[in-house]
């Protein structure tokens, strides 16, 4: 087995460095994901704030609150 230990670190130190690098890589991926989700939410909020105030006062085009469900009649015997 050839020795690729260019920093001449001990086995325990090299293992610690490898684990630390992997944890930092995972933290970087998590940061990119969280910032991406935040950016999408911020863009949606900016689009919502750019709409005129009158658009918030208009009635819902599909008024689901006026729908009624009629239950079948139950006969008591």
Treating each run of at least 4 consecutive H or I residues as one helix, how many helices? Answer: 2
Total strand segments: 0
Q: Give helix and strand order, one letter per element, not per position.
A: HH
Poorly predicted runs of 5 or more residues: none
User: What is the gyration radius calculated from CA atoms?
Assistant: 30 Å
* Backbone structural class: mainly alpha
Shape: elongated
For the termini, the CA-CA separation is: 89 Å
* Residue share in helix: 55-70%
- Biggest beta sheet summary: none
Strand content: under 5%
How would you describe what is shown here?
The chain has 77 residues and is mostly helical. Helices cover 57% and strands 0% of the residues. It has two helices and no strands. The termini are far apart.
What's the structural blueprint in terms of helices and strands?
Blueprint: H1 11-50, H2 54-57
Main attributes of the structure:
77 residues, mainly alpha, 57% helix, 0% strand, single chain, elongated, 2 helices
How would you summarize what this structure contains?
The chain is an all-alpha fold and 77 residues long.
């Amino acid at each position: 087995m050839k020795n690729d230990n260019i920093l001449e670190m001990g086995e325990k130190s090299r293992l610690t460095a490898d684990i630390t690098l992997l944890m930092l890589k995972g933290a970087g991926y998590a940061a990119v994901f969280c910032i991406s989700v935040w950016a999408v939410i911020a863009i949606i909020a900016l689009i919502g704030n750019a709409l005129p105030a009158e658009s918030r006062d208009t009635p819902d085009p599909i008024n689901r609150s006026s729908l009624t469900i009629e239950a079948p009649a139950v006969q008591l015997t």
